[in-house]
Amino acid sequence: xxxxxxxxxxxxxxxxxxxxxxxxxxxxxxxxxxxxxxxxxxxxxxxxxxxxxxxxxxxxxxxxxxxxxxxxxxxxxxxxxxxxxxxxxxxxxxxxxxxxxxxxxxxxxxxxxxxxxxxxxxxxxxxxxxxxxxxxxxxxxxxxxxxxxxxxxxxxxxxxxxxxxxxxxxxxxxxxxxxxxxxxxxxxxxxxxxxxxxxxxxxxxxxxxxxxxxxxxxxxxxxxxxxxxxxxxxxxxxxxxxxxxxxxxxxxxxxxxxxxxxxxxxxxxxxxxxxxxxxxxxxxxxxxxxxxxxxxxxxxxxxxxxxxxxxxxxxxxxxxxxxxxxxxxxxxxxxxxxxxxxxxxxxxxxxxxxxxxxxxxxxxxxxxxxxxxxxxxxxxxxxxxxxxxxxxxxxxxxxxxxxxxxxxxxxxxxxxxxxxxxxxxxxxxxxxxxxxxxxxxxxxxxxxxxxxxxxxxxxxxxxxxxxxxxxxxxxxxxxxxxxxxxxxxxxxxxxxxxxxxxxxxxxxxxxxxxxxxxxxxx
Length: 522
Prior knowledge:
Prot_kinase_dom; 4 domains; alpha+beta; transmembrane; Phosphorylase Kinase, domain 1; membrane; 4-stranded antiparallel beta sheet; AarF/UbiB family protein
């Protein structure tokens, strides 16, 4: 069983103290007693110890931690914040020496004596090597990593049913699917042929934008275990001194990053889902370079339309559209109590409108924390989009502390025709109102002509009930009412071909003067 049982025991024992701590949070004496009051600092320290445990347990658990950082439906916000700091810098020989893979598959094509290591992750190691007249980059999968990952995924899948038993009812819906979600994301990331295809598609989508650099793929040297690509260097996107030396405006780079990722998700349907600072650099001439496409995803047209609807709903504060979109994305079950959810979403919008600064992380945190009473989960595609938003926005706000996610998103949606601009919306509403009113306005002259004809012939009689006069009655009020009515009638009659409005205006003035005179006389 490739050490499954020993690994299961090892993992269970390492996480047992955390399980006991969480159980005691709910019941001080594990199964009885009141809940404990645990401060946020205590939760943060616990989350930091959990990240250390994940790092020690190896690549699969590092990836689990990174995935959990985008799963507020599974873990509390404090833990997602800490897990988001997990980096997978791993020694070159961890999980087997990647050079043995190169010697096996590329020793005839490349001079491996020119090999130089430049970076290491939990799943792969990156080298540069001479190829013809240039140096290229090689991303090499660690030799034993697939076997280890599959074993650890089986361990996780075996532990999930135990977690479900002790989890809150609202978390069970997500936990029951979490092992499948982990497996889909991690195994995709291990397939370098898939990653190469993603790179080719995204590079082609930005062919007409010389501000974006996606390294070219050497398809003849690429396989499931090795990804060969153009070697592009640049300064880390958060290196303030380097950007200043290049004359790069950090606010412009922040906007470029945001619009680039919005375009990938909403326009192209193929997106890079790991925009942390280590995967983004700026070239000497100020272009944005994107690396590491292992965590990438493709949306089908329906998913893409739903994501567009999600952004549009958030920008417009459209509660009904937001509810329908969350159901369409499988975040909420179709059988959910729509009235109750709608009330919660209205509260979310009210809470957000009361904030001076609205960020993507705040929107997601507020939304999911308010939905905690309903069964919901975050599907893998949506989870990756959440990761793009939270990680990418963090980079943008590091570059520009005043970065406004909502404003940039609204501008993007207008530019690409997903929503109309404010002025265009105003004119559209006015045009709709005029279209609805046109038939009524067109019939008005004929109706007024008919009414005035009846007046002239004495056929129109207005019946009123006599009212007992009082000492406090004001006889001038009738003149005011007549004057106001005639002013309104004159404005309407202006559309008629005959000059009835002149007579109406003259009478209105007469009654207005009579009103003023009676008031002064009284």
